[in-house]
Specification:
Length: about 625
């Protein structure tokens, strides 16, 4: 039942198409009365939604629109006996309306997806007791307890405890961020390790996460330049055609001494041949064929407008984590102290790291296991929130974590300053210390995808400016930018900063695409002319984006651009051809050199030709 309500317009359009086929068959079997009844049913079922919208919109805006023109054209063709023509006009227009409605309904789910992530309640600390309360009952200055694994409910400052926080929803950075007293915390991020107490500094309606929601809503409400142009064109087209139709009803009788039958006949022919059936067919078949082509190639386009916009994109902004990079930390360097048995040392480290659920610990443990080494069993481990791990193996103590935790001086001097060298390469370094000093250093990095560099090169050859926008620090961003070959990069970007940078690019390049995968990318994806999401991205990124790369293959961006440019060429060919035919038919009708059947053949013939031309988009060689 829910499916029927959601897709009622599409079902009605398809059913009206079936009725048209039945009526056409009956008409050619000389069952004219029955065919007229079924044609009327097709008119009513297929045209109801558009007719209702057109009439209400006319009263609301106090001006006629294309919907009214289509109704008049369908009625006019029926009056002079061409029921099929009128029914086909209704069918094509109702189908396009159904697809528009589907796209609009789909976009409404975006904000709902965001809302589900934001916590609805929090643990309020009051008189040394914790009480579960709704966010709306919290006030600035309240102390809130956040347990391990919970999302932080509001923006605030850490007061008691230490922890590591997953801030990927805000910054997009895959690596957790250590938090200490007086450090800032953001709503929607995840507390990974220790229980903490924080002070609320902003109302729930003003949090960073709420700003993300507001930015998405704002960007979605803005109409693209192309959409505004189409709306202006439609209004003018309707006025010109209806004005010409009214003149044709009376003027030829007095100026050229046409009899009233001829005058009415020619006016009806004008209304039929001037209907935008061929114009609609110029765009829809080519667009649907291009969308189908993209789907087969792992590219999901959410509508024809996004194909149009992509064809003129002059700059593309890329998120780093999960887009240009894989989005998961990987061990790139593993250095053991000289004189130590490598396998024994790695077995001990794997035994320690396998006891932790921290992303870095899991990456190190997985790396060692892949070497065929079995982790050392039967050890005790203590999690030191915000620092690392303390473990005991056969009465020997091991510390695993950041330089400050294991001994900053020891870490900096290990292997002749290895720490500085690895840090300059944009890597995160974890150290292991035993009773004799630093046992091992392990560098981890979110590595660049294999296809990234060649994709960036191809886009740059096509004259497209490529820039990386990341929430990561400047040093790491500089390394990744160099590895990928992007033209420029902006580091330490919060969601609002990405939107500001996108607006600067839009001002300079006019048509800009944004490629990302995280919740923090959603506002930028919505702000860009075209939002492109990685298929493995978050739900909100997938919902907000205009285009989805299902296989996380960045090379599909270049293919999508080529596809969109080919579609635009075909659409322009179709529009030029269909408009030329309409003008020719109108002029021929005025000079009475064509009959209604010839006008219908010319009109429908041009429609068929532009449809066939549009279907060339199914060819995957672009």
């Amino acid at each position: 039942m829910a499916f029927f309500k959601t897709h009622i317009e599409l079902i009605a359009a398809i059913f009206s198409g079936i009725l048209i086929v039945i009526a056409f068959t009956l008409e050619h079997q000389n069952l004219y009365a029955y065919s007229v009844i079924i044609y009327l049913m097709a008119f009513g079922i297929g045209g109801y939604a558009k007719a209702k919208y057109g009439i209400l919109k006319t009263f609301e805006d106090k001006q006629l629109n294309v919907e009214i023109l289509m109704i008049l054209a369908a009625v006019g063709s029926s009056i002079i006996g061409y029921w099929t023509e009128g029914a086909i006009l209704i069918f094509i227009f109702s189908l396009s309306g159904a697809l528009e409605t589907y796209t609009m309904n789909k976009s409404r789910k975006e904000i709902t997806s965001l809302m589900k992530i934001q916590p609805e309640a929090a643990w309020l600390v009051k008189e040394e007791k914790t009480v579960r309360v709704s966010l709306k009952d919290l006030h600035t200055g309240d102390m809130i307890l956040v347990k391990p694994g919970e999302r932080i409910p509001v923006d605030g400052v850490l007061q008691n405890g230490q922890t590591a926080v997953d801030e990927s929803t805000i910054s997009g950075e895959a690596l957790p961020v250590s938090k200490y007293k007086e450090d800032e915390l953001f709503a929607g991020t995840v507390n990974l390790s220790g229980a903490i107490t924080m002070e609320m500094t902003k109302p729930s309606t003003e949090t960073m996460f709420q700003k993300i929601i507001d930015l998405v809503q704002s960007a979605q409400s803005e109409k693209s330049p192309s959409q505004q142009f189409i709306e202006r064109f439609e209004g003018r087209y309707v006025k010109v055609v209806l004005f010409a139709f009214v003149l044709m009803l009376f003027l030829p009788h007095y100026l050229f001494a046409w009899d009233w039958n001829t005058t009415f006949y020619r006016a009806m022919v004008l209304l039929v041949v001037a209907s935008p059936c061929a114009l609609v067919a110029s765009i829809m078949p080519a667009t649907l064929a291009a969308i189908s082509n993209g789907a087969k190639s792992g590219i999901i386009f959410k509508g024809g407008m996004h194909l149009e916009n992509l064809s003129v994109v002059r700059a593309i902004a890329f998120d780093k984590t999960g887009t240009l990079t894989r989005g998961q930390p990987e061990v790139t360097d593993f250095v053991i102290r000289q004189g130590m048995d490598k396998k024994i040392a790695m077995a001990k480290i794997a035994g320690i790291e396998s006891q932790s659920n921290h992303p870095l610990a899991k990456a190190i443990s997985d790396f060692i296991v892949l070497q065929g080494i079995t982790p050392t069993p039967n050890l005790t481990i203590e999690d030191v929130p915000g620092n690392g791990l303390r473990a005991t193996i056969n009465s020997e103590e091991f510390l695993v974590g950041k330089p400050k935790f294991v001994g900053e001086e020891l870490a900096e001097t290990f292997e002749d300053g290895l720490l500085e060298k690895l840090a300059n390469q944009g890597k995160t370094v974890t150290f292991v210390r035993d009773n004799e000093g630093i046992l091992a250093a392990m560098a981890l990095k979110d590595t660049v995808r294999d296809i990234t560099k060649s994709t960036i090169e191809e886009l740059k050859k096509a004259g497209i400016y490529c820039i990386m926008l990341t929430g990561d620090n400047r040093k790491t961003a500089a390394v990744i930018a160099k590895e990928t070959g992007v033209d420029d990069y902006i580091a330490e970007c919060l969601p609002g900063d990405k939107v500001k940078e996108l607006k600067k690019l839009l001002k300079k390049y006019e048509y800009v695409a944004m490629t990302g995968d995280g919740i923090n990318d959603a506002p930028a994806l919505a702000t860009a002319t075209t939002g492109i999401a990685m298929g493995a991205g978050t739900d909100i990124a997938l919902e907000t984006a205009d285009i989805i790369l299902m296989k996380n293959d960045l090379s599909r961006i270049a293919y999508a651009i080529r596809l969109s440019k080919k579609m635009q060429r075909i659409v322009k060919q179709n529009i030029f051809f269909s408009v030329s035919v309409i003008i020719l038919l109108i002029i021929s009708n005025f000079f009475q050199t064509i009959t209604l059947p010839i006008g219908v053949i010319g009109h429908e013939g041009s429609t068929i030709l532009v449809i066939l031309n549009g279907l060339r988009m199914l060819n995957r060689n672009v």
